[in-house]
Write a structure and sequence with these properties.
single chain, about 900 residues, alpha+beta, BirA Bifunctional Protein, domain 2, Elongation Factor Tu (Ef-tu), domain 3, nine-stranded mixed β-sheet, six-stranded antiparallel barrel, aminoacyl-tRNA deacylase activity, ligase
């Protein structure tokens, strides 16, 4: 067995399968394209899922990839184990080979054994390898076929073991492709043993490591439903073309080939760990104690966590994910904050993780050259999150202190609730051990059981939110049809198109009657189908003589990639084999083309004004407007929006040619034309390139566009908003939409001019500003007068409040309700009452707008050793559904139950008595 670097192992695997006729396919994004069932790309087969489901066709039937993957949330969540085990990772690379209805078990097994054992390739000793197969159950028989193929390659029968459905049967989801799998294991040796004992295969998971999983997709699992639509059982149907999907972890096999028992000891991690040592100043080789509770082994775990999480953060942000409140963003944030936290455990308080981004780039840019372009943008995003987390930690620590104070008052044996602790852990990123130690120091028990229950509940919610791969196979009515010839780039009409299929309620039918709504697939068409953010065309099917309408087309979709289904309301009977002419609604298509070309101009202008970190994060193009989402860290200023609009319209006025290049090799498009890929799109080996204004914008795009930029007419930005953390959205209109907008604005301006009256020599805007300023001054004057009246009314009754004071254990208590006063006015009243009382305690309550309650308590200086305003106001506020606190002499609280204000004031003497002891 020859030592090979991780990069060499990756290349070796891909090159081997290229010699076996496989197409090398570049890794897809970590954000699954058009797949809402997945949180992140977590397996090599993800990018081929539609191929396995029958919804997409490729020009090759054998593929090999090294796929970047993340498993850190949803169904696959081992985040807390990363760094403390040899083989858990958040980010990893999955080597794979795939057969789409071509070869099956025999060849897949032969390929695997040759690659792993041949001295020409990996050269792993055969006597250290074990194989598992599916043992069978009542639904699927034992996979004796795979066993025989393994034996034929030279694997001794005694080294083949059977396991059940949990280990050796794979399925995409509740329904869809599935089948038995066969796993290849490597014996790491006695030194890797978990217990230091020489145990046989199957009894020591640390020693015997799975390095390759061969999945044989041979069934389609479908639901059996009763007449009410309830699933009663499932059935397996053999697939007409069985497929192969394999996965070999690069990190694991690299450890094998480098003679390491831990993935973290391979050259895929050691440069990153060394960089983490430099940045944190902690070198574990010294094996010295950092602090009483941390040993050198714990320090090593922290360094492994930093190295692993730096890889995950770098690749996720590079692929468009940003830390934020949404599902993907929150998982990324959790990964990053865990790494930052472990940096702090090593004694490093300042931002450092952003510098790890460059170490990841230097190590992995050879396989993923896109890191060279994205590293600066990624590092900025990581540093911003580091600084944000520092602020959050400070807020979280303060919140923890508040919760400990409340817990201390809960009884004779105070306990910090596990639910509260998990909220602090999840929301503020406070480490569990930090919370436990703070509780211990305060003499408060920590509800460990409740904390773990809350954590498991959160994991269950995550698993429920992301179902993995529960997608149905494409309907047979569409799956086996040839691709629809698309003629819509050149013409709005297609003639003599043959009806290949009619689908009603998901089922293919030979014919349909007038009045029915169906989906119709033709051999060629001029209709564009929903894709790339652009909505599908509408229009008509005409009879071949052009004199009658066969169907009204209300939309066009792609149920299977390349197959266009026309949503048709039939005006005449229609049957498979009939021929029609297709006519697209030209005015609607023109409006869509203007808006789609506008998105390209906006994208380029955004990058000019805001920076090249801007990347498309989604779009929608319809006849009325365009919507464009993009990565950016701050709100776009009005001045920037104006500049973007100016740049776009200068390009429009130049009336430059819009050039489209068909069937361009993707390497040429990206490397020579520098074309940008669009968010969420899949690309084959040949792509369509759209160039605007002689290189002003060059993108990969399959949409319809204007022939020149001048056809847009004028583009007007009409909104800029936040979509999520790090993602902004602009909306715009063009063509007649812009004209309609200007007309409406002109009408508003005329009305405004009549209302405001422009000053002599001034503009309408000057007149409006003057009018609004005058009204604002009038409103301020009226508010002042109203506040003065309220204050005068409240102050007029202070003598009555003093006269009604109650004595509580020798302390004078004054209570009063003063509605609609703001907090400043309430504080003034408290000061006045304290002066009138001489020495005592004051509690004021006030009903506020929107159903809220304000509570303020004041204590004269001589009494603050006996009672503090913060504790009293907090106790009173609980009775109105609120909380609060403050200084010993004056404190404020809020509430939300105005109906309980009277009861709260009535209870004040009792609460004060309890605090006085």
């Amino acid at each position: 067995m020859q030592y090979r670097t991780g990069n060499e192992v990756r290349e070796l695997f891909l090159r081997f399968f290229e010699t076996k006729g496989h197409r090398r396919v570049h890794s897809s994004s970590l954000v699954p394209a058009n797949d809402p069932t997945l949180l992140f790309t977590n397996a090599g087969m993800n990018q081929f899922k539609d191929v396995f489901l029958g919804a997409e066709k490729r020009e090759y039937n054998r593929a090999t990839t090294s796929q970047k993957c993340v498993r850190a949330g949803g169904k696959h969540n081992d985040l807390e184990n990363v760094g403390f085990t040899r083989r858990h990772h958040t980010f990893f690379e999955m080597l794979g080979n795939f057969s789409f209805g071509d070869y099956f078990k025999k060849d897949a097994i032969a390929f695997a054994w040759e690659l792993v054992t041949s001295p020409e390739w990996m050269g792993i000793a055969k006597d250290r390898l074990y194989v598992t197969i599916f043992e069978g159950d009542e639904e699927v028989p034992r996979d004796s076929e795979a066993e025989q193929f393994w034996i034929a390659t030279g694997v001794p029968k005694e080294r083949i073991f059977t396991y059940g459905r949990k280990d050796n049967f794979w399925q995409m989801g509740e329904t869809g492709p599935c089948g038995p799998c066969s796993e290849l294991f490597y014996d790491m040796g006695l030194e890797a043993s978990e217990h230091g004992k020489d145990l046989p295969f199957g009894q020591d998971d640390a020693r015997y490591v799975e390095i390759w999983n061969l999945v044989f997709m041979q069934f389609d699992r479908s639901a059996v439903v009763d007449p009410l639509g309830k699933t009663t059982s499932y059935k397996l149907t053999p697939l007409p073309k069985p497929c192969v999907d394999t996965g070999m972890g690069l990190e694991r096999v690299s450890a094998v080939l480098q003679g390491k028992i831990s993935n973290f000891d391979t050259d895929l991690f050691t440069p990153l760990i060394e960089r983490a040592e430099e940045l944190t100043g902690k070198r574990v080789s010294q094996a010295e104690l950092d602090r009483e509770t941390r040993t050198a082994d714990e320090d090593a775990a922290s360094l492994r966590i930093i190295a692993d999480h730096a890889r995950a953060a770098t690749f996720l942000i590079s692929d468009g994910v940003l830390p934020g409140p949404n599902e993907r963003g929150s998982v990324l944030r959790k990964i990053m904050r865990r790494a930052i936290r472990h940096g702090r455990l090593l004694g490093h308080e300042k931002p450092f993780l952003f510098q790890m981004v460059y170490a990841v780039r230097d190590l992995m840019a050879g396989a993923y050259p896109e890191l060279n372009e994205s590293a600066e943008r990624v590092a900025r995003a990581v540093e911003a999150e580091e600084r944000q987390f520092d602020r959050v930690l400070k807020v979280g620590a303060a919140k923890l202190d508040q919760e400990l104070v409340l817990a201390a008052k809960s009884g004779d044996s105070p306990v910090l609730s596990g639910e509260v602790a998990f909220h602090l852990y999840e929301t503020f990123g406070l480490p569990e051990d930090f919370i436990m130690m703070a509780a211990r120091d305060a003499g408060i028990a920590f509800d460990k059981t409740g904390f773990e229950a809350a954590k498991e509940e959160e994991k269950a919610r995550a698993r429920a939110s992301w179902k993995g791969g529960s997608q149905k196979t494409a309907s047979p009515a569409f799956r086996d049809l040839p691709k629809t010839g698309f003629e819509g780039y050149r013409s709005l009409t297609s003639t003599d198109a043959e009806v290949l299929a009619i689908v009603k309620d998901g089922v293919g039918v030979p014919a349909a009657k007038a009045g029915e709504q169906v989906e119709v697939v033709l051999d060629h068409t001029s209709f564009y189908g929903d894709s790339g953010g652009q909505v599908g065309d509408t229009g008509f099917f005409l009879a071949l003589d052009g004199n009658s309408t066969v169907a009204e087309i209300i939309g066009c979709v792609l149920p299977v990639q390349g197959v266009r289904a026309h949503k048709a309301v039939l005006k005449q009977d229609l049957a498979v084999g009939d021929h029609v002419n297709t006519v697209v609604d030209g005015d609607r298509r023109d409006a869509i083309r203007r808006n789609h070309t506008g998105t390209h101009l906006i994208h380029a202008a955004l990058r000019q004004v805001l920076g090249t970190h801007v990347k498309q994060a989604g779009s929608l193009v319809d006849p009325t407007r365009l919507r464009f989402d993009f990565s950016h860290f701050a709100q776009v200023a009005d001045e920037e929006l104006a500049e973007i609009e100016n740049i776009v319209n200068r390009e429009v006025l130049s009336n430059a040619k819009v050039e489209t290049l068909e069937d361009v090799p993707i390497d040429v498009a990206v490397n020579e034309y520098h074309a940008m890929a669009l968010f969420g799109e899949k690309y084959g080996d040949k792509v369509r390139v759209v160039k605007l204004s002689d290189g002003f914008s060059t993108e990969l795009c399959g949409g319809t566009h204007t022939g020149a930029t001048g056809e847009i007419g004028l583009l007007k930005l009409v909104g800029e908003t936040s979509v999520s953390s790090g993602v902004r959205r602009v909306e715009a209109i063009s063509g007649m939409g812009s004209l309609d907008s200007f007309r409406r604005d002109a009408e508003v301006a005329q009305v405004a001019a009549q209302v405001a009256g422009a000053p002599a020599g001034g503009s309408l805007s000057d007149g409006l500003r003057a009018r609004l300023a005058s009204q604002e001054d009038e409103l301020k004057k009226l508010r002042r007068e109203l506040d003065e009246m309220r204050m005068k009314s409240a102050a007029g009754g202070l003598d009555d409040v003093v006269s009604q004071a109650v004595d509580v254990k020798g302390v004078k208590l004054l209570r009063h309700r003063a509605d609609q006063l703001d907090r400043g006015q309430l504080r003034t009243l408290v000061d006045n009452l304290k002066q009138k009382a001489g020495e005592g305690v004051v509690v004021l309550a006030s009903a506020q707008p929107e159903g809220k309650v304000a509570i303020i308590a004041g204590v004269t200086p001589g009494l603050t050793k006996r009672v503090q305003a913060g504790k009293l106001v907090g106790a009173v506020a609980k009775l109105v559904g609120g909380s609060g606190g403050g200084k010993p002499e004056i404190a404020e609280a809020g509430g939300k139950d105005q109906a309980q204000i009277g009861a709260a004031l009535e209870a004040a003497p009792k609460l004060l008595a309890e605090l006085l002891g």
